[in-house]
Design brief:
The chain is mainly α. The chain has 7 helices and 2 strands; from the N terminus they run H-H-H-E-E-H-H-H-H. The chain has 2 domains: 142 residues, no CATH class; 86 residues, no CATH class. Helices cover 76% and strands 2% of the residues. Strands 1-2 form a two-stranded antiparallel sheet. Strand 1 and strand 2 form a beta hairpin.
């Protein structure tokens, strides 16, 4: 049971990383420049890819020998994941992370037919191309090594997730708090450290999502303005 869990966790992490690489290559090609910042996590992984792959592996392995069914079900499964991921992220952070409204055959700008087709093709590639290679690499590891590597990577990922979400959630609140209150030298020091981290992450997010759309686009602009204002005040202190 533990061994199977390690396989699934490693699948999630590996394909989250592969998804990141795919996004970097895809965006770099379309923007004619190297685009390294993708997603809101600090590390090079996109959980939406890892989650989709694990779901496809668990739910669709019975269609492995039926390419058409695998294609259709992969389209459906990944599109559902992408739709609800967009919805949840927007509810939490009040920001629309991606918008396909300009694409034909889209649903509320959260998913579109073109991406769904890519998901279908990805499902086929997963079972016939990627999984055989990935599993062969997993099988090279001993049980002990597999467990150790899984635990280490899981801790790194969880730490990244907690840090990224914590900074994102606190960014707006901390900016308002510090801009409205006089603070002691000790708090100023803590504030400067927090602002430095916030500013770096905010810059990364702006680079990762330069075309963020929707009614909450002004949130990013307002946050960036507040961070810049506070940093200017800090220089005068």
């Amino acid at each position: 049971m533990l061994y199977d869990s390690c396989y699934l966790i490693l699948m999630f992490l590996v394909y989250s990383f592969i998804g990141y690489i795919i996004e970097v290559l895809f965006c770099s090609y379309h923007e004619n420049r190297l685009v390294m910042n993708r997603g809101f996590l600090i590390g090079p992984w996109l959980p939406i890819y890892g989650s989709s792959v694990v779901l496809i592996y668990l739910l669709l392995h019975k269609y492995e020998n039926d390419i058409l069914a695998l294609f259709i079900m992969s389209m459906f499964t990944c599109s559902v994941v992408e739709f609800f991921t967009s919805l949840v992220l927007e509810k939490i952070f009040k920001i629309r992370w991606w918008d396909y409204s300009k694409h034909k055959f889209n649903l509320d700008g959260r998913i579109c037919l073109t991406n769904s087709i890519y998901f279908g093709l990805g499902g086929i590639a997963l079972f016939y191309l990627f999984n055989p290679v990935v599993f062969s690499l997993f099988n090279v590891l001993s049980h002990k090594a597999l467990i150790i590597i899984t635990n280490i990577l899981s801790l790194v990922f969880i730490g990244d997730l907690i840090t990224s979400i914590s900074v994102l959630v606190k960014l707006k609140v901390s900016s308002i708090k510090f801009s409205q209150k006089d603070v002691s030298e000790e708090v100023i020091k803590l504030r400067n450290e927090a602002l430095k981290k916030n500013a770096l992450l905010l810059k990364r997010l702006m680079n990762a999502f330069p075309k963020v759309e929707g009614k909450n686009k002004e949130v990013f602009i307002e946050l960036k303005k507040k961070v810049n204002d506070i940093r200017n005040k800090k220089k005068k202190i």
